[in-house]
Amino acid sequence: MMPSPWRVAERWDETADTFTVALEPEPRREAPGFAPGQFNMLYAFGAGESAISISGDPALPGRMLHTVRKVGTVTSALALLRPGDTLGLRGPFGTGWPIESLRGRDLLFIAGGIGLAPLRPAIYHALRHRTAYGAIRILLGARTPADLLYPEELANWRKSPGVACAVTVDRGDSDWQGHVGVVTKLISSINLDPRNSAALICGPEVMMRYTAAALREKGLPQESIHVSLERNMKCAVAHCGHCQIGPHFICQEGPVYPLNRIAFWLAQREV
Amino acid sequence: MTPSSVQSILERSRLQDLFDVLHRRGYAVIGPTVRDRAIVCEELRSAAELPEGWGDLQEGGSYRLQRRPDKALFGFAVPTNSWKEWLHPKRLKLLDAHRNPDGSLRFTPGDEDDPPKLAFLGARSCELHAIAIQDRVFLGGAFTDPHYAKRRAAVLIIATNCGTSGGTCFCVSMNTGPKVNRERTPFDIALTELLDESGHRFLLEAGSEAGAVILGELPVRAATESEVTAAETLVANTANRMGRSLDTHRLPETLLANLEHPRWKEVADRCLNCANCTMVCPTCFCTTVEDVTHLTGDHAERWRRWDSCFNLDFTRMHGGPARQSGQSRYRQWLTHKLATWHEQFGSSGCVGCGRCISWCPVGIDLTEEVRALRSP
Predict the structure, then answer these.
(1) What is the C-alpha separation between A5 and A48, in angstroms, rounded?
(2) What is the pLDDT of residues B100-125, one digit of tens each?
(3) Fold observed for domain A99-228
(4) How far does the CA of residue B288 sit from the closest CA of chain A (Å)?
């Protein structure tokens, strides 16, 4: 499957090791729409491809945002791109958050670190259709206050009616007055109606495992807990075999799964 | 002429005619021959290149050529390499990326040419099942692999019923052989090699219109009833001489209920993680990609090549590989092949060809591993 050229319209740093690129099709053409939680394969010239979640607003598909953490060869090459540069894009791929089927429910968005990036399109969608959903809670965990993604946006979300946000960090700094500790600690303090809530979780696998367990203790059924998984991916079309976890091709059926479909495999080590 | 159950006889002395007809029709013939003291599949120019009088001795971690007492051409178990080499190439250029003077990028496909028309001569029933499995992987899902699709469409299959079984064969356990079955795995022509006091000849059966047309161009005669019976008996005897067996009863459930069985560690202590089993496996389909740039910096290529779940890098993410231990990688391979494959593609991923047993440098035998995993 061939990539198509997209132009970097804007690029900015988010934190010390993360940045966002806003991409537009080059030459100008209609952009494919995307569903919250889907991802693209971004190709940096000569360096290779990487699976990157779409972090922008699904209502504005012509300006595709990707928030990337600089961790390997490809993401480091993507980090060097500047406005006007072009890259290759294949996608969007995968099955995203079932946000439409969650209408009427209270939503709990729980993110660890860069896990907020794939959740943000779902948050945008819920806020854009605010009256379609019940209470919205956003629980975030970050390594340090400086690693917290989208702080300005977070401040805006806090001001939205019926939206509550809580943040915790692994290590505070001298100015930090908020929570310190893992994101599961934030769950113990909240009241949720297990029959009418849904949780959307993205973060490191171990964080999702503990978070899901904490939500189960609160009475939330597995079918109401959605997790976004991550695996090495090469093809994104279920042919290269890299992203398998048990019988699941994460790139196609996933990356988002209701917990009941993936719980068995999530509980295994090294699968 | 339409496919029929009418069977014909082609004399050994006229086998070259089959090559001539195929060549005239534009097919390159891929078939078995002896190279590097093993029987391998590669392009054959004539019938003289077939492994006349050669058999093979296959055991756990062992492969030896052996002279046969007769001049059989297909008197061995399975060749070293499988047909996936031609349908799902080891290395394939996916694209060229060009950087224009203004810095913009342009992409051109790397695999545009029409594939050569190939005749697979001597594909066995287990191998036809392996091809059918890869068909489901590459053509049966939401996305079609265009590289596989066009190669597959250009292949003519001349199957062989097995007249001999190897020490590591277990197709009977997997219900994939040794007799080819047109209903389950289509072929164009099937041949059974007959070698007895009445001479050396091939019983041919057309499995498709294309096969029937080719048969029509060969100097064949109608098979006698006794020749048809002889062929049936031959294959039935082969089925009774499998070197290995695998109990498939409730196998997926059993394996998935034993993901923490101590045997995984025990087998991992022997496994070298060399990936040989996945390279010789006719159904293993995993690939990775490599990006290369020209020195000018304005041209890059993207290549796809076979990969293996035994490689540490296979599951590497920013936090390290998901499958760090050798034990987890062996477990992935075996449980994928024999358990989770069913859920993904509706069948086992194993066809019982035995290559992974023969070509394992330390002789790990999956039929033995399954037996051990079945016992508590």
Answers:
(1) 14
(2) 999 899 999 999 999 999 999 999 99
(3) Rossmann fold (3.40.50)
(4) 6
